[in-house]
Design brief:
disordered C terminus; alpha+beta; binds zinc ion; Immunoglobulin-like; elongated
């Protein structure tokens, strides 16, 4: 195989059939031949990798991810952390998975396998073989390339966490020896953890996939060749530049639908490829329309979708562990044939996973170390897209009289959460997978929505657009995002980000007290100058004006500080709006008026989305006697609070 493979690949390398103006710096160039052996649930692979040393240092060692080794026994770091379960799906102990390196050498034939060594940079677990390194006989000089030839055998586990097989369905992801990222002169090559996704460099992928001919194949990128082989197999070659991963799927029970999708402004011209399992054909239109909504929303709000294809993979029932996962230009969604019309779960998953082409695919932040930059931004975008296409107050459920928005569900998670972790943390170091999910997804999404309400929608939109444009095809960090937000808004936002990203606390403001008391008749001796000047008449008229002492106390119950607005309403309808910087633990407002208070409300428009308790945001002055009108008014207030909690 190698004899014919090498010259062919080098030929392709030199005269690539597809050439687009590249959008990223190509650090990696993968030319892979992969053959699916369904009986063995395995891939036989050959890989030619050319890697650019983009640093100023000579590099003597290369590090690789062998992600599938997470599934090879119960002692891997992934298995120890997950106890063999992921998002509710369980490991099948009869079907482990692994990647075996059979050959790794330089193009001149120099063997490297003898230098190969498994390392555990994150936890020192010697049973974990998801990262390996090889030593080079000579260093790769700065700004020079090196080319390796690798033969590997990847056995797929029964799918429960993203990659694997179920019967005749194959989701082939994290499946090939993949070089780490040399970042700031050091290898950034983390082990495969339960609570983490991935990080890789941009470049070129050309992958030839060989499967038995009855299999329908979907893969990252554009299909540039399709060959029928003499042995009853078919080979499909896919190509894509400016991506940092390559995934594929194969199943004889897929139905394939292809459709052109174009937008005028911004200009988008792509091909939608839907691979839907036969048992789900009734859901075809829902998948297609939600994907179109996703492409339109992200293109219009962040930047035009630039790739020539987008492939939506629908896994069969029994393989839902593969569902809801993103890869460049290809993602998996999930549905059931009986999914009711007013439940938008597959729409949400489709839009979310498509959206990762932006906040993972193109903006290549480090998901191991700063997951919120991907999942949080994507949750924020998803909430807005869902509200736009499926209704502000009903974007997740609109059935049987029940209306619940995506926003309300995300907020409910934050409200009900503990205070175990801040948002910024290595993904595998969170207290639990629940805490990882809460912080990286929902809370981070709400942080951005709060910022949007604070700065205004136009400013926030400009921040997101600028961030995407400046950092696409690069590896930004949290600092880079904050710098864009401060530059675009013209404001120092450190006070905001430092709290919400680095501390596990909460934000909660409340009206803790309101009362109106009649001002007492003056008693005793008054010797002040004013008293003498205004005389009896003046004093009486002042008493009329100041018949009631009205008091409102606003309290900061949480640790996070956020500027607040307070709306005070009096019995005669007069309204006062106060602004408070929110810094002290409490603030008292006193008004002398000829009439009483009716109500007080902090954050009357519910703009401070991170406030975890809206029900303490307002108080209505209690009547001494039970007045049906006031009782109704108070009920209405409470009802509004509940509404603002479940829908937005
Ligand atoms: Zn996601």
């Amino acid at each position: 195989m190698k004899k014919t493979f090498l010259p062919v690949l080098f030929c392709l390398f030199a005269f690539s059939q597809v050439s687009l103006a590249s959008m990223s710096k190509h650090i990696v160039d993968y030319r892979i031949k992969a053959k699916l052996v369904p009986e063995e649930k395995a891939i036989i692979g050959e890989e030619i990798l050319t890697w650019l040393n983009d640093s100023e240092k000579p590099i003597l060692e290369l590090q690789f991810h062998l992600y599938l080794n997470a599934f090879q026994n119960n002692r891997s770091t992934f298995m120890k952390e997950s106890k063999g379960a992921h998002r509710g799906f369980k490991l099948d102990k009869e079907n482990w998975g692994y990647t075996e390196i059979r050959k790794i050498q330089l193009v001149d034939g120099t063997d490297l396998i003898s230098t190969m060594e498994y390392i555990q940079p994150d936890d020192g677990n010697i049973d974990d073989q998801t990262v390996m390194r090889v030593s080079l006989p000579e260093p790769v000089p700065p700004h020079k390339k090196i080319t390796l030839y690798i033969e590997f055998y990847s056995k797929l586990p029964k799918v429960f966490a993203r990659s694997g097989f179920h019967k005749n369905f194959f989701m082939v992801a994290q499946w090939f020896p993949k070089i780490g990222v040399l970042w700031n002169g050091e290898w950034n090559c983390h082990q495969y953890h339960r609570n983490s996704e991935f990080f890789a460099d941009f470049g070129v992928y050309e992958v030839e996939i060989t499967v038995p001919e009855e299999y329908v194949v979907g893969a990252t990128g554009t299909r540039i060749e399709e060959v029928k082989n003499n042995d009853g197999s078919k080979s499909y070659t896919h190509f894509q530049e400016d991506v940092h991963d390559f995934a594929w799927t194969a199943c004889p029970d897929f139905e394939e639908f292809r459709e052109k999708f174009t937008l005028e402004s911004p200009p988008v011209n792509t091909e939608i490829i839907l691979l839907i399992h036969r048992s789900h054909l009734s859901q075809k239109e829902r998948y297609l329309s939600s994907l179109k909504n996703g492409i339109e929303f992200y293109s219009q709000n962040y930047g035009a979708y630039p790739y020539p294809t987008i492939t939506l993979v629908d896994p069969p029932l029994g393989a839902l562990g593969a569902g809801g996962m993103e890869y460049p230009t290809l993602f998996t969604s999930m549905t059931f044939s009986w999914m009711p019309k007013g439940i938008y779960i597959s729409e949400m998953v489709t839009i979310h996973e498509f959206g990762h082409n932006y906040w993972y695919g193109m903006v290549g932040s480090n998901e191991f170390e700063e997951a919120w930059l991907d999942e949080g931004m994507n949750t924020y975008s998803e909430i807005k897209a869902m509200a736009k296409y499926y209704g502000e107050d009903r974007s997740m459920f609109n059935t049987c009289g029940l209306r619940i928005s995506d926003f309300a569900l995300q907020r409910a998670q934050v409200i009900g959460s503990g205070r175990m972790d801040p948002i910024l943390k290595n993904s595998w170091e969170y207290y639990s997978s629940g805490s990882y999910g809460l912080n990286s997804y929902s809370k981070a999404g709400l942080v951005l929505l709060t910022l949007e309400k604070y700065l205004g929608e136009d400013v926030m939109s400009e921040i997101m657009r600028t961030y995407f444009d400046r950092w696409k095809f690069k590896h930004p960090t949290t600092k880079d995002f904050i710098a864009v937000a401060e530059e675009v808004s013209g404001q120092d936002l450190g006070w905001f980000f430092n709290q919400v990203l680095s501390s596990p606390d909460k934000l909660d403001y409340a009206i803790s007290r309101i009362n109106s008391r009649q001002v007492k008749e003056p008693q005793g001796i008054f010797k002040g100058k004013k008293e003498a000047d205004e005389g009896i008449q003046g004093r009486e008229s002042r008493q009329k004006e100041e018949l009631y002492r009205n008091e409102v106390v606003v309290e900061r119950k949480g640790e996070w500080i956020f500027p607040q607005e307070i709306l005070i309403v009096f019995e005669n309808g007069e309204e006062i709006r106060e602004k408070w910087d929110g810094r002290e633990r409490w603030k008292k407002y006193v008004y002398f008026k000829p009439y009483k208070l009716k109500s007080a409300q902090v954050d009357p428009e519910n703009k401070v989305i991170l406030d975890v308790n809206y029900t303490n945001n307002s108080r209505v002055l209690k009547a001494k006697k039970v007045s049906p009108l006031k009782y109704a008014l108070k009920s209405m207030f409470n009802f509004q609070n509940i509404l603002s909690f479940i829908s937005f």
